[in-house]
Write a structure and sequence with these properties.
This protein has helices at 6-16, 28-31, 80-94, 98-106, 117-122, 143-155, 196-213, 232-238, 258-277, and strands at 43-49, 55-62, 66-72, 107-112, 159-165, 171-172, 181-184, 220-222, 242-248, 293-294, 297-303, 311-320, 323-331, 340-346. The chain is an alpha/beta fold. The strands form three sheets. Strands 1-2-4-3-5-9-7-8 form an eight-stranded mixed β-sheet, sandwiched between helices. A four-stranded mixed β-sheet has the order 13-12-11-14, with no helix packed on it. It has a two-stranded antiparallel sheet with strand order 6-10.
Length: 352
């Protein structure tokens, strides 16, 4: 297996991180000013508009026969993948390393960095008409869903990267570590059969997991492969387009997800590198060695000598008067003895 060197990735990220994009609230007006610079090497085009007529852009690069479609922010409040893609764009724009040359020789890459700009504007999962694009793959009610399917049909990709963020509740099963990155090779039907497409998808995920275990060991999980009949990944996989789901999650003390952004960047580049350098995709068995996601975490837990009095809290991110605000809300939970807090505060009952 051809795995990228961690020192190489660290240098790339240090030099080419897109510093104009920071934090969880990334809107169209944040990416619009920097899109023109990519015209130097990419084909940058507007491929459509959202329900509220915000532009949706595509960036295309490469000349190879292996076609790969990557999209982010189909949920407007999930921007880690978007930021990681712009970091990657900067590498292709500025770096002539053989790694990138090989990818561009073997692959044609098509990126949609912000599929749901209306949701991004107001920091919501859904689009302007309250449609969850990730559950609209069959009905295609939303304008954005129709656009994504049209691009899929036009490109006919061998692989797709479906980039999302996951909640802070997830840990890596059997550990006390948050699931910083989680992967999924989606099922094609309810039996979760091991099809040729899923095997090929798993192979690429295995390569990404090997890379991440070299830098964040035991912080990588496997998302549930329960079949969702209306979900994008499940349906694209069913249509013959191997779809790699990357869920960017929590890293200790990283609520802006800037550390997670870095590891998402590492994972995407390793996946592209692996696809470019592979003639077959059959190494799937280690996929099942990736631990499942579990749900042990709350953002904050107040601990008392009587554990029955323990209280858990979760952050809720909102836009209030044009500002991004994270508010702690109390969670109803009967028992917290087996749960973990990203932050835990122990109180002396006699003082409190």
């Amino acid at each position: 297996m051809n795995t990228l060197e961690i020192d190489f990735l660290k240098e790339l990220y240090k030099h080419y991180k897109e510093n104009t994009l920071y934090g969880k609230w990334i809107r169209y007006h944040d990416i619009a000013p920097i899109l023109p610079k990519y015209n130097a090497k990419f084909e940058v085009s507007q491929i459509g508009t959202s329900e509220e007529e915000r532009p949706i852009h595509q960036l295309k690069i490469g000349r190879g026969s292996k076609k790969i479609l990557l999209w982010s922010q189909m949920h407007g409040n999930e921007s880690t993948g978007t930021r990681a893609l712009f970091d990657l764009f900067n590498c292709f724009l500025n770096d002539d390393n053989l790694v990138f040359g090989k990818i561009l020789e073997e692959c044609t890459l098509i990126f949609i960095p912000m599929l749901n700009p209306d949701g991004a504007e107001v920091y919501t999962r859904v689009n302007a008409h309250n449609v969850d694009l990730n559950r609209d793959a069959v009905a295609k009610i939303a304008k954005e869903s129709k656009l994504l399917r049209a691009i899929l049909d036009d490109v006919n990709p061998q692989f797709g990267f479906n980039l999302h963020d996951q909640r802070t509740i997830f840990n890596v099963e059997g550990t006390k570590n948050p699931a910083t990155i989680s992967f999924l090779a989606p099922s094609e039907e309810v039996t979760r059969a091991l099809t040729k497409g899923r095997i090929e998808t798993m192979d690429v995920i295995v390569s990404m997991n090997v890379l991440l275990q070299n830098c964040i060991p035991n912080f990588v999980g496997r998302y549930t492969d329960e079949f969702y009949p209306t979900a994008t990944g499940d349906n694209f996989q069913k249509l013959g387009h191997n779809t790699i789901l990357i869920e960017s999650g929590h890293y200790p003390d990283d609520y802006d997800r800037e550390e997670t952004r870095k590891y998402t960047f590492y994972a995407i580049l390793q996946g592209l590198h692996h696809i470019a350098n592979s003639s077959s995709f059959r190494n799937y068995e280690p996929y099942f060695d990736i631990p499942n996601n579990d749900k042990l975490f709350f953002d904050v837990i107040h601990r008392y000598s009587d554990c029955k009095k323990d209280v858990a809290y979760q952050y809720e991110d909102k836009i209030i008067e044009g500002k991004f605000v994270s508010k702690l809300n109390k969670v109803d939970e009967n028992s917290l003895e087996s749960k973990l807090g990203h932050k835990e505060i122990t109180f002396n009952d006699k003082i409190v």
